[in-house]
Amino acid sequence: MKFLQHLKPSALLPALLALAVAAAPVAHGAIAAEGTGTKTSTKASTKNSTKNSTKNSTKNSTKNSTKSGAKAGRHAKAVKQAKKAPKTKAQARAIANAKRNAAATAAAVNYKGERVNFGEWQAVSEFADLMSERHGFEREALRALIGQINFVDSAVQLVKPAPPGKPKNWQAYSALMVEPIRIKAGTAFWNENAETLARAEKAYGVPAEIIVGIVGIETIYGRNTGRFRVLDTLTTLGFAYPETPNKQARMAFFRGELEAALLLARQRGVDPLSLLGSFAGAMGLPQFMPSSVLAWGVDFDLDGVVDLHNSRADVIGSVANFLVQHGWKREQAGPLAYPVDVAPSMAWEKFIGQGLAAKYGQQELREAGVASGQPLPPGMLFGLVDLQNGPEATEYWLGTDNFYAITHYNRSFFYAMSVIELGRAARSNRDN
Ligand SMILES: [Ca+2]
Q1: Which residue range or ranges hold the Transglycosylase SLT domain (predicted)?
Q2: Is 395 a catalytic site residue?
Q3: Average pLDDT, 10 consecutive residues per value, the chain (432 residues)
Q4: Phi and psi angles of residue 86, each rounded to the nearest 5 degrees, phi first
Q5: Nearest partner of 176 among 42, 10, 54, 304, judged by Cα
Q6: β-strands 383-389, 276-277 pairing
């Protein structure tokens, strides 16, 4: 719930409010829930965003923006093939309702939180002791700091799983994420940072359009980096996570991030309370969690500090580095995903939900009834990606290693696919 302070009232406000509610959980993926990731969130993220998302006139712009170059041509075909499900009245109604609900929720967000005496909580006190022992933080200074930390109920509410039974809807999600405002902002970001993006592409092998896509989906290029104090949200979620089956794992995760935030602030010589981020503690234009800043952040403008709020170069280098460290392969220069048809036999179902990795050979996939309309690069492995479309037919794609690298940024197929589409649309917009 990071966006609202920057927005000007306009006809788009309801959609943007919906986005604020919808995108925030998504922007932090569910990676941490399964212990692999840098970003945080709940399994409900995609569900939430789909539920809250809106379908509008933006689909055309996506479609129209995919026409230049041979690779883009292939992409365009894929997108065209994929975007065949028409909007139904039921979908439109659901989306309109979600927008209204989202706006109401957004208006209720309390960024500042409330005073509680976290210092009196035994678990918090033990955590402070641990920080003293492990990292040499002065106990009294920590005590004073903890005394200033607020409980943020909004964060607790936002990590709660969505009610069950709402079908995910990729078309609605992508219409919300890949829309004219974001595409235009992406084009501007690309133009303003073309040299740096080219330098990152050379250094890391990650194309500019993927970096542009990620920063756009995360924060609309810095418009929505979050207005919660990171210490407030991380302490709240680390010690008062809502009752969910994975509560203990999530609290451990957020305590780890709180530890990282303290280290990050010390490393930079700043007041830890000055760190701002999303309701889940994600910071800066690329929404890195504190531990990710420490682990994967890159000082790409060589000024001696990793600054993901103010240095576009650091943002670009850090996103590229993150992807490379999570399986991005420079040599896989083709499409990140290929649209496929699946046979009625359902033999292919065994490939669904098998983790975030490309591990199936083409013959194996073919034999189970997965058919690509275009030739696949020989020797490459794939995973089967399902994009549910609410009441409409599910889309299926074969994801490459590089597709799955993006899912390590955020554990959602919708997320990865919208990153790809936004980057492509920005490129196309720039070319025209
Ligand atoms: Ca820097």
Answers
A1: 122-423
A2: no
A3: 28 34 34 33 34 34 35 41 50 61 65 91 97 97 96 95 84 95 98 98 98 98 96 98 96 98 97 98 98 98 97 98 98 96 96 96 97 94 96 96 97 97 97 88
A4: -75, 155
A5: 54
A6: unpaired
Ligand 1 midpoint to CA 302 (Å): 5
Q: How far apart are the C-alpha atoms of 269 and 272, rounded to whole Å?
A: 9
CATH of the domain at 258: 1.10.8.350
Q: Is residue 165 part of a domain?
A: no
Residue whose entry in the numeric block shows the structure tokens 């002065």: 138
Residue 251 within any structural domain of the chain:
yes
Residue 355: inside a domain, yes or no? no
Q: Among the options 179, 201, 209, 218, which is catalytic?
A: 218
Q: What is the mean pLDDT of the chain?
A: 82
> What is the Å distance from ligand 1's center to 111 Cα?
28
Q: Distance from the CA of 430 to the center of ligand 1, in angstroms?
A: 27
pTM: 0.79
What's the domain count of the chain? Answer: 1
